[in-house]
Amino acid sequence: MREPGRTEPVSAEQVPSERVPSEQVAALRRFNRYFTRRIGALDDHYLGQDRPLGEARLLFEIAGTPGGVSLRELRGRLGLDAGYLSRMTKALQTQGMVRISVDPQDNRLRTIEPTDAGRLEVTEQNRRADALAAGLLDTLTPVQRDRLVEAMATAQRLLRLAAITVDLVDGTDPDARACLDAYAADIDARFPEGFDPSDLVRPQEVSGTAGAFFVAYEEGRAVGCGALRTLEPGVGEIKHVWVHPRARRLGLARRILAALEDEAAARGHRVVRLDTHASLTEAQAMYRAAGYREIPAYVDHVYASHWFEKRLGPR
User: What is the pTM (predicted TM-score) of this model?
Assistant: First the structure.
């Protein structure tokens, strides 16, 4: 698995995307400025306590993990630079809020856990945060509160999706094989007849000139995959589009499917095909919504009951 939580400088390619209208960029930035001010993120005494938001959030995460948490996991979870995390943990340690020790299972890792004083501060932090949120919501009508909560849930879902990357990896990559293993276990539980892992694509079928394999990453963790292999000149086959349960209902499967289609077009395929099982009704609905049409069987596949095809336009 690739190292999570690594912060990179913003590149010229990232600023700004020509595909995003400037007014939408401005709207998101305007909301960010308003929201960070409204919740007190700019105050070095967040919620009236004697620490800024960064330290308060770090202490909250530490206290919320029973038995302690490794600094490596905190980096991945919060997306923090190693130096910045080190400075904050040392500050909390000096203030008597946390204790740091060597992981008994791996002496290369350091774990951190709250002291009694740290737990008391987090309890008070939660009380004040609840009061702040309730105070804001109390000024709205019940209907307005429902609309706001629904809008925030939508915003969180879309921001999660926006932050997920879909990366091309070699078919032998450990994350690729781990995703396929998880996919196999998932559909083995769903198919009435079970699933034989020997039916999975082989690494050489989805690497190099033969095909491609994509892995979706959220905060450094692999949460989805999809494969492309060549059936014949100009025709590609999409296999094993899968999303981890914790990343479902975000629209990620459609994102992976689009990446596979783009890759197929870049390789000169005019058509992509796929098959799916009768029990995967949500997959069938997604393929139809994405422009696939059902066709007669193009291959004899024990787990297939529906076959689809899509003609690719110029990319």
Answer: 0.81
